[in-house]
Design a protein that fits this description.
single chain; 67 residues; alpha+beta; 3 strands
Length: 67
């Protein structure tokens, strides 16, 4: 399985490469760690990790239901 990062917020990082947030990750934990780095407050600014093959959201930073 591979994973991608999604968010309605601009994802940026002072230490990650610009393409880090558009990459596909083979490891879900790496995708989650990268996703968290992309927003200032992951509990308020939702960022999601999605399985590329199925389209299923496998992790989200907020408690909100995915629409």
């Amino acid at each position: 399985m591979s994973y991608r990062i999604e968010s309605h917020y601009l994802l940026t990082s002072d230490w990650l490469a610009k393409g880090a947030f558009t990459a596909h990750f083979e490891n879900k934990a790496t995708a989650i760690t990268t996703a968290i780095e992309g927003v200032d407050d992951p509990k308020e600014q939702e960022v999601r990790v999605v399985c590329v093959e199925t389209g299923a959201v496998v992790w989200r930073s907020t408690q909100a239901e995915y629409e």
